């Protein structure tokens, strides 16, 4: 049996002292659940290194990267990112981006892999936004393109919020096709232009959601890709506090099955980043995030 390579670093969960809207505990709780479910064992656990400033500066403004590194972001930059105890998150951002790059490399080797973090899709070239400091996906994709490991990439962003940072970073790059299915009346207020945007109305339920997803996958079925990077945000769920959609848990199972089948049938490597998910009950949230891991393991067996 192929074991799904899973990337995790202890810094993913910062053990915050103060309560926050950002559910930082979900990362270590998810790791625990994957271990309990028999999906994560010692042999398929990979620990990332923090990325260097120079690798990150290929995607982000080097001055911004330096400010993150030296914990000297301006008050305005901090407000735009909106994370508590931001200096600790700054250190974590280097590791989280390292995790997505490691997972992407593993996916190219093994056909699939997942980072138990990442999907910081609001971060743009010049700075962070909406809980996102570095755009880990863009950093990994740019690295793989520049090192010749891939020629074409599809970024499939199914987080409920538009992947605006990713869209702007790759706006002029024909090698990368950005796809975002999101709730139109949600953050960010001003949407960017992905190669393919599907704006869903508030309150969309399973049937409608899956219809739009299927249609989208059909549209991109002939798009050349050596890698699919998937933002598997579960904030499309009906109980999400920031989502505004009404997709059920079984709807998320079907979503993950369609995405995984899309890649498996095309023979394209798939790398997962966690993306958003905001619920009071961390246990419920973690159960939703764990679905993609289960689906991947089952489909690739
Ligand atoms: Zn989101």
CATH architecture: 3-Layer(aba) Sandwich
**Topology pattern, helix = H, strand = E:** EHEHHHHEHEHEEHEHEH
Give the % helix. 40-55%
Give the cofactors and ligands.
zinc ion
SS elements, strand count: 8
Strand order of the largest sheet: 2-1-3-8-7-4-5-6
CATH H-tier superfamily: Histone deacetylase domain
Q: How would you state the average pLDDT, rounded?
A: 96
Measured on Cα atoms, how large is the radius of gyration?
17 Å
Counting DSSP H or I runs of 4 or more residues, the number of helices is: 10
Q: What structural category do the secondary elements indicate? A: alpha/beta
Low-confidence stretches: none
Distance between the termini: 6 Å
Report on this structure.
By secondary structure, the protein is of the alpha/beta class. Helix content is 41%, strand content 12%. It has helices at residues 26-36, 53-56, 62-69, 75-81, 86-110, 136-146, 164-169, 206-219, 249-266, 282-300; strands spanning 6-7, 45-46, 112-115, 153-157, 176-183, 196-200, 227-231, 270-273. Helix 1 (26-36) packs across helix 10, helix 8 runs parallel beside helix 9 (249-266) and helix 9 (249-266) packs parallel to helix 10 (282-300). The protein is globular, with a radius of gyration of 17 Å. The protein starts with 5 loop residues before the first strand and ends with a helix. The model has no long low-confidence stretch (mean pLDDT 96). It binds zinc ion. Zinc ion (ZN) binds next to loops.
